[in-house]
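Input record (Table S2, row 670):
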Amino acid sequence: MFTKIIRPIFLGLILPASFATAGLAQKTTVTVHLDAGKPISPDLFGIFFEDINYAADGGLYGELIQNRSFEYDVTEQPTWNALSCWELAKRGGGDGGWSVEGARPLNSNNPHYLVLEVKKAGEGVGLINPGFDGIAVKAGESYDASFFAHQIFMNQRWGANSGIEGKPMPVTVRLESRDGEVLCEASLRITGRDWTRLTATLTPKRDEAAARFVLLANAAGGIALDEISLFPRKTFHDRPNGLRADLAQVIADLHPKFIRFPGGCLAHGDGTNNFYRWKDTIGPVEQRRGQKNLWGYHQSVGLGYFEYFQFCEDIGAKPLPVLAAGVSCQNSDHTGEVGQQCLEMADMPAYIQDVLDLIEWANGPATSKWGAKRAAAGHPEPFHLQYLGIGNEDVISPGFKERFKMIFDAVKAKHPEITVVGTVGPYPDGKDFEEGWKFANELHVPIVDEHYYRPPKWFLDNLKRYDSYDRRHSKVYAGEYAAHDGGRGVDKNTLRSALAEAAYMTQLERNGDVVHMSSYAPLLANLRHMQWTPDLIYFNNTRVIPTVNYYVQQMFGANSGDTYLATQMENLQDSDKVAISSVRDDKSGDVILKLVNNAPIAKALNVNLAGAKGLVASASKTVLTGEPAIANMPDSPQPLTPEVSSITVGDSFDYDAPANSLTVMRIKTK
Ligand code: AHR
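Output record (alpha-L-arabinofuranose complex):
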């Protein structure tokens, strides 16, 4: 009654047409041929960071003040203006007012600033900022407050005899609890009529989950204020203008081989005037040009290209910046009414130059025009940019094609060392997908980006998607994917979705000769500001909550390989839902097995390591298992996490893969 199945040498997954009588099932045999491998991409598992769900400002970016430069605007949210998130404080008999002005800005990229007029100082007149839903601070830790300021000639406003010209303005900066308890404070003086940066260190005396930043002027007179900032001293890798340490660490723990940024739809934006322009995001933060985020809020771009590249370097990931292909997001406005907009042809040469300049900025010598800007930011050595994304799931229109080709040709001509990643539309099939592939093949684009947000069943039904991809064509970057379990708006991060992704990832490894890169999407979500679910990591100001899908990504990311090992399986039943891949990490020599059992019963396996020499008997085993419907959501009482233990292995050994599980075995051969 049994059909012996031996799949072609590199096909690790079996969905057999054979069957077996219940109760007579033989043990499934898995044979991994340690001496029959094929090279696979060393950059297979990475991450995709997009500023969606407040992932940057109010998320990974360490800044604690919201609307620090008074640039919030009604075009970003209907109730917003330059004073949003700020409150006027009049303490202990103080009296005065404020206004947003623009006559003498800090610079043209930062056009608005605040003028504070203090008629009567009392116990202080000034500003309060609650940060992003409160400022979480820790006792004894240092927080760096800074702002730009100058005095205002009040005789021009209040009359010649105001009598206060030339006197410095004493100010206090504080952190307070919501009920006004002072947690820490520092005193400063604002002098002169030129914009000057003032700094102070604040050290709270106790923990507070939702503190407020307060700046009080303590004498009559006027001052101008801009770029009011508060950073924890402890950022990831102690970088100034750095990243929130706990969140960055959880991302680093994924062991991504690359980071794609800054989007997604954000990269090509809400119309051609809303492209993410990398040049606006480098240099001193107060000189960067923030803009509307098409996800419905403001991007300060304090987390800009320098910080993205630096983060990549800090965690050993390759940068994959994505630039608009000269066309905007076809979902501009989220109404679909605006549609894809194309940059005017007259603007294309300058745009193409921006693309080329990025490569020089990243890789050029410190003596080059753009390399010098990188060096001025503190990084004279090149960033070793290898990959460059052009376009994001664009509609493959004539306008797109024309502009993509212009950019692609220019990069190829000037920088043949750069690997361009193109795009084949928003979906894993259909018109744009077909057209995108045809176009990519015509142009010989090295890698194309495929996207799929689909139910878990789609992932399980498509476990052989890449087995038949033509190896002579472009390679694939599975740049955005996630198994959406439940339906739009109610999708949850269930184990069912995570295991469907895990099974799918075994085929990415098996096809790692044609699939070059992959990344789950989206990466981050601030629990109070979500535009998209499911996401990989949720957070609020005090907690970071990895999902069950996160652990799948981590188990693959931390256990990737350079060589796919031929894997054969014998004796499987129709009902088996087993997916397996085997790789070797050439550096350590470790052999790594990934076993996904999507069935509701355990699966008995006999594993043979053919051609094994010098195996260490004790291997590590990491297992993620539970009820498929378990949703590792932020409110879950007991989040599901993988368990690590050891297992005795040999040339041949038995393993019962638990029901609904992913197992990763790491076997030492040296
Ligand atoms: O990941 C969220 C969005 O999904 C991305 O911005 C876009 O590329 C895709 O439609």
